[in-house]
Amino acid sequence: MKNPVIKGWYADPESRVYNGKVYMYVTRSLPFEDQHNLDLVVTDDLKTFTKIEGILDMSTFKGATFAIWAPTIIDKDGKYYLIFAANNIHEDNKPGGLYIGVCDKPEGPFVNVFKDGRPLLNVFHYGAQPIDAHLFKDDDGSIYLYYGGWKHLVGCKMNETMDGF
Q: N or C, which terminus of the chain has less Cβ within 10 Å?
């Protein structure tokens, strides 16, 4: 493997293998106010890497305007679900929080699961800021969401439609 795998500044990589390819979902390492989308790095041989920029259809994520970061993805029933944080919110019910997008392919573009554009979560549960999410699929197919900030970690089981808890 060559390093760096691509040029640029990136953070928060989450990798998954789909269809014989490695997909690395990454945060653009820019000032908060300049982080407007996520990128994807794809390889099928761990030697050559292709960057796909702007994998979110941001027009479908109402209120998500900056600090777009920390992607996590999971596949379920032939669809791909990606959760990311937006706006680095510091209070309940502010624009931003965790959003969930869906697509028929792992490359995107991901659109909001909710037709009205709302976030999946924009409140603090147990003191955890809604950022830095991770999706986990258990052996029985159950999907769990873990997230946290401000020294707190929260976990919950996603419902069958992947649109909430």
A: N
SS3 33: helix
Residue 80: beta bridge partners? 75, 103
Residues 73/40, Cβ–Cβ less than 8 Å: no
- Which among 7, 140, 142 is positioned nearest to 156, based on CA atoms? 142
Instruction: Show the CA angle centred on residue 7, arms to residues 3 and 9, nearest 5°.
Output: 105
Q: Are 61 and 85 in contact (CB under 8 A)?
A: no
The amino acid that residue 99 corresponds to is Y
Token couple for 119? 């976030």
The Cβ-side half-sphere exposure at 7, using a 13 Å CA radius, reads 0
49, two tokens: 């890497």
Dump pLDDT digits (tens) for 39-78: 999 999 999 999 999 999 999 999 999 999 999 999 999 9
For residue range 107-138, list pLDDT tens digits in order: 999 999 999 999 999 999 999 999 999 999 99
